[in-house]
Amino acid sequence: MQDQLDKIKEKCLKCEKCQLCNSRTNIVFSDGIPNKKLMLIGEAPGFYEDQQGKPFVGKAGQLLDKIFASVGLNRKEHVYICNTIKCRPPENRNPLPEEKEACWEYLKAQIDIIKPKIILLCGNVAVQSILPNIGGITKIRGKWFQGNDTVHGAKLMPIFHPSYLLRNDSREKGSPKWLMWQDIQEIKREYDLI
Ligand code: URA
After folding, report:
1. Does the beta carbon of 32 sit less than 6 angstroms from any atom of ligand 1?
2. What are φ and ψ of residue 154, in 5° steps?
3. Gap from CA of 111 to ligand 1 centroid (Å)
4. Which residues are CB-neighbours of 107 under 8 A, at least 6 positions away?
5. Would the CB of 45 count as within 6 Å of ligand 1?
6. Are the beta carbons of 82 and 49 closer than 8 angstroms?
7. pLDDT tens string for the chain (194 positions)?
8. Where are the beta strands (DSSP E) in 11-117?
9. Ligand 1 pocket, mutate which of 27, 163, 165 (most atoms under 8 A from CB)
10. CA 176, CA 169: separation in Å to the nearest integer?
11. 50 CB less than 6 Å from ligand 1?
């Protein structure tokens, strides 16, 4: 599996299919372990990710690691992390449709090679890529969706993006952080079952 992923990464490293190749410092392909059980798809690399060539290494990534750690999960052993697009959009704007389209072949290849049983869709951009027209994240987070053939029938769960949690400090019942805590426990329950 690693060989196949390395081949796709090599292709991606040379990619010039969209304008983001002109402004990137590094391609951000993935981090974590190619794990048959669990994959997380985020939005797009930010400043630190672009600098280091690794997804989720800035503040949002540190919070994501804490969220996983709260249920005993980590990148080294349990989860494969990637993004909808592999190059940083200028000023961290949302990816454009043509950028997502150009980059889809790499994400699809990652899914096809790993065939994870659970895919977490982290934030609206990731949700739109895999479950278009399903509705906003606040309504659908924490729910399981049955994936189609594109994702090899994986169970899909939309979750809040950690940068949204960073903007919402409250931990009170019903707050985004509290909801994320419910969601990660549900994810861990499912992870242990499969
Ligand atoms: N936000 C994302 O969605 N992905 C990253 O890799 C970093 C921040």
Report:
1. no
2. -60, 155
3. 18
4. 41, 82, 83, 84, 129
5. yes
6. no
7. 999 999 999 999 999 999 999 999 999 999 999 989 999 999 999 999 999 999 999 999 999 999 999 999 999 999 999 999 999 999 999 999 999 999 999 999 999 999 999 999 999 999 999 999 999 999 999 999 999 999 999 999 999 999 999 999 999 999 999 999 999 999 999 999 99
8. 31-32, 38-42, 80-83
9. 163
10. 9
11. no
Quote the CA–CA distance of 86 and 26 in Å, as a whole number: 9
Place of tokens 């991606």: 12
Measured in Å, residue 150 CA sits from the centre of ligand 1 at 23
0.85 exceeded by pTM: yes
* CA atoms of 158 and 40, how far apart (whole Å): 10
Residue at 49: amino acid letter: E
d(CA 65, CA 140): 22
- Indicate which atom in ligand 1 lies nearest the CA of residue 28: 6
